[in-house]
């Protein structure tokens, strides 16, 4: 099965053997992770799609692949349109599509360990119109035909020292125990990998770019916990760190442990726990209470130690970015560099710090028209030369013990001046970035209420971008962390979602994308902080900028900047110089000085 057409044909034959009329294949794992290990890359293996979010539905006579606006271009480049129809989310959904396309009386299979309960309920409801059923499979049919499927990672789990965590695992378990007791609950299922890592001050390398270990936790109201993890991953050091209050069991014992909770009231997060968890608890006679994972908000609101660590990581990372940008300004003019060589050069600069543990995601190194795909992923087949007189976009980040970074810079590769249109679009994106960075807002404000701050200067020119403006970021954890985000409200309902709280870290990343030509994005990370405003009637918040690296002045159209925006630019770059200059020398330092000169 060397072709995706052959794999699709084999899957259909397996569905027939399992007496199924269709099957749903998401990018997911047993933990509802955004980024998954190689063993869980079922959608990529089946279809060729390399994005981080998407779902396919395979019926006997047709198939479809569902992606959002980030992957509109990418899916058409990677997935054969003869085999799959392209479906855009949120304009449609798997449930809506199946409600129209499922055969009458069909049995549509799904793996209950890869989907949430809410998703399963919505699809079940949609299928009723076709007298069809959603059926949980005993064996995933993709796994049945994927003969060389990788095994889950066997890498050891690691202790994350308290000096970086800012609170001990004992203190965190006690906080969860108090939360359970206050709600009259016996236990909580902690299934999101970053939640397990945060709760136990444990990290790993089981998922590329995210330092987590494949495991589940049952946290109990008495402050103890059960950790379900492959035994070979537990070192004596980790066992000592966990202590007697954390019972370590084989990962395979998780399902029997759920079955043993008969008569108990158990908190389960419907957004982070798979449908199978609910099913096992229900079958056992336990009461599953749908509540947000109790670690989510404490994890999102970084403590002072984590905040300080993040500032240190950002300063280190900013110097690496600056050395790379200086290198790029010299070498790219010759037209000999490619997207892959540039990504490798940037990683090498981060590695020179001696503290890089991993990238925080696969670097988006995008030259010219490839930049028009917001989540473009370069490989040997798509690798493009970085040509003189073109736009180059690089979105990248690093994982350090003291923080997770994420930064995007868009640069003009000379020697000629950039076209007026490119400068106009870049400056509109910059104005939106500045407006969001300077936002001041009352307590209780949610990200959807701030999203238009970043879009307004594009909107007045009849322009927009098809992705969110900001996502949460972890502390040596997931580069995309909830529940905080800045994006258009679902269904246009402003005011829904998670209020922004002090200590939360978010990205500020407006952009603009012209299909077939170029992409523009400017991204810094910001920290929500309380603002003291004389005479304020209530509590107000604002943002502390965390990311410091030069923004390309060549792409700015100064005539479009108001005085306060020009002041922001000059103040920001003065801070960049103060923070980074002590880490640079020679030609790198001279380049920084020129890049940070006032407008």
Overview in brief:
By secondary structure, the protein is an alpha+beta fold.
What does this structure look like?
It comes from Novosphingobium fuchskuhlense. The protein is α+β, with helices and mostly antiparallel strands and 599 residues long. The chain is 34% helix and 20% strand. The strands form eight sheets. It has a six-stranded mixed sheet, with helices on both faces. A six-stranded mixed sheet has the order 12-11-10-8-13-14, with helices on both faces. It is globular and about 65 Å long. The chain starts with a helix and ends with a helix. The model has no long low-confidence stretch (mean pLDDT 96).
Q: Per the principal axes of the C-alpha atoms, what is the gross shape?
A: globular
- Any idea what the CATH architecture of the largest domain is? Alpha-Beta Complex
Q: What are the low-pLDDT stretches, counting only 5+ consecutive residues below 50?
A: none
Strand content range: 15-25%
**What is the CATH level 1 assignment of the largest domain?**
Alpha Beta
The first-to-last residue Cα distance is: 58 Å
Taking all Cα atoms into account, the compactness measure Rg is: 25 Å
H/I helix tally: 19
Query: What is the structural class?
Result: alpha+beta
Mean pLDDT: 96
What is the CATH T-level topology of the largest domain?
A: Creatine Amidinohydrolase
Helix content: 25-40%
* Count of the domains: 3
CATH homologous superfamily identity of the largest domain: Creatinase/methionine aminopeptidase superfamily
Main sheet overview: 6 strands, mixed
């Amino acid at each position: 099965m060397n072709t995706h057409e052959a794999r699709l044909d084999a899957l259909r034959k397996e569905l027939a053997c399992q007496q199924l009329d269709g099957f749903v294949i998401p990018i997911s794992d047993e933990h509802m992770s955004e980024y998954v290990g190689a063993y869980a890359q079922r959608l990529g293996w089946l279809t060729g799609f390399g994005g981080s979010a998407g779902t396919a539905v395979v019926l006997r006579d047709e198939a479809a692949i569902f992606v959002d606006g980030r992957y509109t271009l990418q899916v058409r480049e990677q997935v054969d349109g003869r085999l799959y129809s392209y479906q855009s989310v949120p304009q449609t959904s798997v449930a809506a599509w199946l409600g129209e396309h499922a055969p009458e009386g069909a049995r549509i299979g799904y793996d209950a360990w890869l989907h949430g309960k809410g998703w399963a309920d919505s699809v079940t409801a949609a299928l009723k119109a076709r007298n069809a059923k959603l059926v949980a499979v005993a064996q995933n049919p993709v796994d049945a035909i994927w003969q060389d499927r990788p095994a889950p990672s066997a890498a050891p789990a690691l202790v994350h020292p308290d000096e970086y965590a800012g609170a001990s695992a004992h203190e965190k378990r006690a906080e969860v125990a108090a939360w359970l007791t206050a709600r009259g609950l016996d236990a909580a299922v902690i299934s999101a990998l970053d939640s397990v890592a945060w709760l136990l001050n444990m990290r790993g390398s089981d998922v590329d770019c995210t330092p987590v270990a494949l495991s589940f936790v049952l946290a109990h109201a008495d402050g103890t916990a059960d950790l379900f993890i492959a035994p070979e991953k537990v070192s004596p050091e980790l066992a000592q760190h966990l202590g007697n209050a954390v019972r370590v069991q084989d990962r395979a014992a998780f399902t029997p442990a759920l079955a043993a909770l008969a008569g108990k009231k158990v908190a389960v997060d419907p957004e982070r726990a798979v449908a199978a968890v609910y099913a096992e608890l229900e079958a056992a006679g336990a009461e599953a209470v749908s509540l947000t994972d109790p670690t989510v908000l404490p994890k999102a609101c970084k403590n002072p130690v984590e905040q300080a660590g993040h500032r240190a990581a950002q300063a280190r990372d900013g110097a690496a970015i600056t050395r790379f940008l200086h290198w790029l300004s010299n070498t790219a003019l010759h037209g000999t560099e490619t997207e892959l060589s540039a990504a490798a050069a940037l990683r090498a600069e981060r590695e020179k710090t001696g503290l890089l543990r991993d990238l925080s995601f696969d670097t988006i190194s995008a030259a010219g028209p490839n930049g028009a795909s917001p989540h473009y992923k370069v490989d040997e087949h798509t690798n493009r030369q970085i040509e003189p007189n073109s736009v180059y976009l690089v979105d990248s980040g690093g994982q350090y013990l003291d923080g997770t970074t994420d930064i995007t810079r868009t640069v003009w590769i000379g020697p000629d001046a950039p076209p007026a249109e490119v400068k106009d679009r870049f400056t509109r994106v910059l104005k939106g970035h500045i407006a969001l960075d300077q936002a001041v807002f009352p307590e209780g404000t949610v990200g959807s209420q701030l999203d238009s701050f970043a879009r307004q200067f594009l909107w007045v020119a009849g322009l927009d971008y098809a992705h969110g403006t900001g996502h949460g970021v972890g502390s040596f954890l997931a580069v995309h962390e909830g529940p905080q985000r800045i994006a258009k409200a679902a269904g246009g309902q402003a005011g829904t979602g998670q209020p922004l709280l002090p200590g939360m870290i978010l990205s500020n990343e407006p952009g603009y994308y012209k299909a077939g030509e170029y992409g523009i994005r400017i991204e810094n990370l910001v920290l929500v902080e309380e603002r003291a405003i004389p005479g304020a009637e209530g509590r107000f918040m604002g943002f502390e900028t965390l990311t410091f690296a030069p923004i390309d002045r060549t792409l700015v159209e100064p005539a479009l900047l108001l005085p306060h925006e020009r002041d922001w630019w000059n103040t920001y770059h003065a801070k960049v110089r103060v923070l980074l200059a002590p880490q640079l020398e020679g030609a790198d330092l001279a380049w920084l000085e020129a890049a940070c000169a006032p407008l």
